[in-house]
Design goal:
Blueprint lengths: L1 E7 L5 H27 L3 H13 L2 H26 L7 H18 L5 H30 L3 H23 L29 H20 L1 H11 L1 H6 L4 H28 L10 H11 L4 H24 L4 H23 E7 L10
Antiparallel strand pairs: 1-2
Helix pairs in contact: 1-13, 2-3, 2-12, 3-7, 3-8, 3-10, 3-11, 3-12, 4-5, 4-6, 4-10, 4-11, 5-6, 5-10, 7-8, 8-10, 11-12, 12-13
Length: 363
């Protein structure tokens, strides 16, 4: 007789987690190959080549993939403090939208301000807009123990409506239902080139924030306190920690980073604002944060991989004349395997031999 035993791994090494993820990706690609052959009759290697070409085929495509990776990574990093505190922040999408809205407002109304002063103002105000959208549900959670998942989710819809109102108010030209490119002649509020690259400043900001959060969570008193609050409010109070203060402070930090991500999209990339500004990154970032087990290095790799696949999927849809749903299926299969691999990263499965049942005692 054999029995299956599950035991939780305590802080598995990064190399082991990455090895499991790579194995999951390999198996996912095999399944995708079968789907491609059965649905499209195409050579899967040609399709995978099209994905690579779509994501990294030219210098411009490389930087577009890097740009998208940076935004996704920044939102995921912003979610980590809240998730470590067991505060399920599903409102990153709304916090990002509010940060982008603040950036657009300053670009429109502050176009006469010198760029060296306007850009810091844009970044600060974007962070403050995200902070506001983060501390509202944090206050009600800490004060009345409301359901933060529903609260932050509903805040997303309020942010979308505020963006819709602003688009109608700022539409240019009138009747277009679009803001258009903001300040195309003066580039006021646009991120300047850094290191000779258009998205160089985006890269620098995301690196600094990622390193800061990793240090903040591991080596600071605040990082320790939010971990304790996440384990137990009662334990935290017994240790003399102000739970309400920690919850609001942590969500302020989480919202600020997500708001800054909105700034990266508006001021650092698209130079316009719309309801599709976040592009679902607030929800995809949840997957990134959980699959990486809140590890910064793993988040970089997973964010890049997901953006690589998404941009590559757009290419194969046009190159091979495929329905967009086919590319979505491929991405979905890979994400499914990656999420499933998290089980093997956190738990050890062992098969043990058991002795046969003893004969029952005769009456």
């Amino acid at each position: 007789m054999f029995s299956i035993r599950l035991s939780k791994k305590d802080n598995p090494p990064l190399w082991q987690t990455l090895l499991i993820k790579l194995a999951a990706i390999f198996l996912a690609l095999l399944v995708c190959a079968l789907v491609i052959i059965s649905v499209t009759d195409l050579n899967p290697f040609e399709v995978y080549g099209g994905i690579f070409n779509g994501a990294l085929g030219t210098k411009r495509r490389v930087w577009v993939t890097i740009r998208d990776t940076l935004v996704l990574l920044l939102v995921a990093v912003g979610l980590v403090p809240a998730f470590k505190m067991r505060f399920w922040n599903i409102g990153a999408e709304g916090q990002m939208l509010m940060g982008g809205l603040a950036s657009a407002a300053l670009m429109i109304y502050g176009s006469n301000i010198p760029n060296w002063l306007l850009l810091p103002m844009i970044m600060v105000c974007s962070c403050l807009a995200g902070v506001l959208w983060g501390i509202i549900p944090a206050f009600f959670k800490s004060k009345f123990n409301t359901n933060e998942t529903l609260f932050t989710l509903m805040m997303n819809y309020i942010a979308i409506q505020m963006i819709s109102f602003s688009v109608v108010f700022w539409e240019n030209p009138k009747g277009s239902n679009s803001v258009g490119i903001i300040n195309p002649m003066t580039n006021a509020g646009w991120f300047p080139n850094l290191f000779g690259q258009r998205y160089g400043l985006n890269l620098l900001i995301v690196i600094l924030v990622t390193v800061f959060i990793a240090f903040y969570l591991r080596y600071t008193k605040h990082g320790y306190e939010l971990s304790v609050v996440g384990e137990s409010w009662d334990t935290a109070r017994y240790a003399g920690i102000n739970v309400q203060k920690v919850i609001i402070r942590t969500m302020a930090l989480s919202g600020a980073i997500c708001g800054l991500a909105g700034c990266l999209v508006v001021s650092g990339a698209s130079h316009t604002v719309s309801t599709s500004l976040a592009g679902g990154r607030g929800f995809t970032a949840i997957i990134v944060a959980w699959m990486s087990n809140f590890n910064s290095g793993a988040m970089v790799l997973i964010s890049f991989f997901l953006c690589f696949m998404e941009n590559g999927a757009i290419q194969i849809a046009s190159q091979f004349g495929l329905n967009e749903n086919v590319s979505d299926i491929i991405i979905g299969i890979i994400i499914f395997f990656l999420i499933g691999s998290s089980f093997f990263s956190r738990y050890k499965v062992s098969i043990e031999k058991t002795k046969g049942a003893e004969k029952s005692i005769e009456k």
